[in-house]
Amino acid sequence: MTSHFFLLGTHITQERLSWIDESLKFFFVKLFPETLRHHTKPKENVFTFLITRDALYSLHEPETQQVWEKILLLPSVRIICDRQELDLRGISVERLKMKYTDQVIDHNSLSLNGQTSFWRDVVKIARQHEQPIPTTIGYLQLESPYMHQSSLSAVHCLAAAIEVQADIELYAYLDGVHLGHIGQNPTEYDNIGKGLEDIAELASKRDLHYQMLACSRCAAARGYSTWDDGQGIVISTCTIKPFKIRNLNEVIARFDRNHLILGENVASIQLKKKGQPETLVGSDKGHAPPVTILITRSPYGTEHAFGALSFAIACAYNGILTRVIFIEDGVNTVCGTHQLSKDARYFNLQEVIDVVAGSENLQLYVFQPSLQQRGIAKNKKMTAVLDIGVAELGQLFFNPPQGIQANHQRILFF
Amino acid sequence: MEEKQKEIPDFSDLTCTNLMIRLKMLLKNAPPDSAVEIIVRRDQRDTIGIPFSRTGYDVKIRKIDTNLFRVRLQKRDPNEGI
């Protein structure tokens, strides 16, 4: 048996939890049916759900709680809750805990400062997940500080990673680039910029490497002064010192490596097959973990859908096997016929899909149940985007792709 | 030279991924057998050169300023060299 984890921090809808439930059922019924037939639970946890911030509401809201109960009936599934965030929100998980005592964990490990820390648990699991122990833990941040609590999670996660002696990497994308703005001075919130500077200092003191990379496209759009002096050096005058603004391709180049990348909503699926050697530090393309990008939001209203597509194109261009799945509200990207006015400065996403279709390392899918739930259909001209159902989603998640030697797959929610 | 540059799309302010998308759109909409020309920066030139020559294009690059290059792409004849 292998082990997989989901780290979820934003509101979980019944729709999202249901397709997660269905994909887990595919895993057990199709790939490991013996675990269901003989009531012989594997010794280790197969799926760990790490739940923090607003995702915790799903544990006590009736419509999602009933789906969690179905998930917890599957063998070797456990949920680890962020105790501090449960207390902050006044959420009780007692009802679930009474029924699934060993599977619902609502207390966290002690960190070095003597306080309990959910993020300590996260990095511990991340480290157990990979053997031999990984040397680096990455974090992908898409949201801005102060408006979004996820920025504080990024700081806590990276600090916890340093506690377990891991090198750290922060990838700031979309609004995540604001994490590195100079001169942050919040009066009622932890200073995120200062937090990152402290982490960089701590890493240096412990002889650990750190990188904090922000996407140059996202940074330039948001007013971060950058320029190319002709030598390829991009200089920024408005970021904290550890923060470096780099072309997206340079950020993605870090994804070539086999370390774990955490984030606001991510999953890591182990792909190791029996007898296959471990590969952790390889940087050649066959060793790069495949990336599955879930586009869950409607296009145009926010930058998420375009950002995800752009990110996927960059991954594929860098030789990483990349699967894009339009799911939940993301299916609107492939419905109807999108038309841009002539003077529009942004992209028609259907046109983007059309021109990148067939690119090496890039596969595009739309999740049929999301279309059905909304009573809409895919634009018939979008033949490059393949229709998939629950079974195909399970296959994409859990069947190791051909020619890939990496020991895990990264799933990123946009 | 300024006159010519006006006719050629200037992509020098685009980041690499967007440049790839815009360029693929230009190539897709170009008449068959015609060449596409764009103005790019040095780092963008590096992004275009190898991948497009690997995928069936003749790529010609000419320096026109300190950090500006004129890139010409034309689909190679698939029967070439047979």
Structure summary:
The complex is a heterodimer of chains A (414) and B (82). Chain A is of the alpha/beta class. Chain A has helices at 14-31, 34-37, 62-73, 83-89, 94-99, 118-129, 150-163, 192-205, 216-221, 248-253, 304-317, 349-356, 368-374, 390-398; strands spanning 4-8, 47-51, 77-81, 104-105, 109-110, 116-117, 136-141, 167-172, 210-215, 243-246, 260-263, 265-270, 291-295, 322-326, 362-367, 385-388, 408-413.
Polypeptide structure, described:
The complex is a heterodimer of chains A (414) and B (82). By secondary structure, chain A is an alpha/beta fold. Chain A has three domains: 1-107, Hypothetical Protein Ychn, Chain: A (3-Layer(aba) Sandwich), CATH 3.40.1260; 130-263, Hypothetical Protein Ychn, Chain: A; 271-414, Hypothetical Protein Ychn, Chain: A. Helices cover 33% and strands 19% of the residues of chain A. Chain A is built from 14 helices and 17 strands. Chain A has a ten-stranded mixed β-sheet, sandwiched between helices. In chain A, strands 10-9-8-7-11 form a five-stranded parallel β-sheet. In chain A, helix 1 packs parallel to helix 3 and helix 11 (304-317) packs parallel to helix 12. The longest helix of chain A is centred in the first third of the chain and has 18 residues, at 14-31. Chain B is built from three helices and three strands, in the order ααβαββ. Chain B has a single domain (2-75), classed as TusA-like domain (Translation Initiation Factor IF3). By secondary structure, chain B is α+β, with helices and mostly antiparallel strands. A three-stranded antiparallel β-sheet of chain B has the order 1-3-2, with helices on one face. Chains A and B meet through helix 9, helix 11 and helix 12 of A and helix 2 and helix 3 of B.
